[in-house]
Design a protein that fits this description.
The structure is a single chain. With 132 residues, this protein is an alpha+beta fold. The protein folds into 2 domains: 47 residues; 79 residues, Immunoglobulin-like (Sandwich). The chain is built from 3 helices and 6 strands, in the order H-H-H-E-E-E-E-E-E. The N and C termini lie far apart (85 Å). The mean pLDDT is 86.
Length: 132
């Protein structure tokens, strides 16, 4: 009888330590994948939920030296922040820019603010809102 015929099947096709290594690698890969998924989810949530304050321009009314802007601001209760507005003339030059602060416990603020300008503005543009 030859020695090849007396070997056990696991000795011919691999050692039992290879099975343990494969199992360990699967466990480590699963744990690392779950951690990566949790980190991506955490960053995604904070990117979307992010600033905690947002606004939109409802209407605006321009005169020769000011633009009255009707803003609707949504924010978290107790969050203080500011929104930056700008106005441009008909030729595209910026004629006014200002930050407007919003504080207090309200979560929705409906307010008309006055943006002073150096010339007649033809736009009222919300550049963004941030926590302070």
């Amino acid at each position: 009888m030859s020695t090849a015929s007396t070997q056990l099947p696991q000795e011919r096709y691999g050692r039992s330590s290879d099975v343990r290594s494969d199992r360990t690698l699967k466990i480590v890969g699963t744990v690392l994948g779950a951690v990566l998924l949790a980190v991506v989810g955490w960053f995604g949530y904070h990117y979307v939920a992010g600033s905690g304050i947002s606004a939109q321009v409802i209407t605006f009314d321009a005169s020769d030296n000011a633009v009255k802007v009707h803003l609707e601001v949504h924010k978290d209760a107790g969050t203080d922040g500011y929104c930056t507005l700008r106005s441009q003339a008909a030729d595209g030059t910026e004629v006014g820019r200002a930050d407007f602060r919003f504080t207090g416990p309200d979560t929705r603020i409906d307010k008309v603010v006055t943006l002073r300008t150096t010339a007649r503005g033809s736009t009222a543009e919300l550049l963004g809102c941030h926590r302070s």
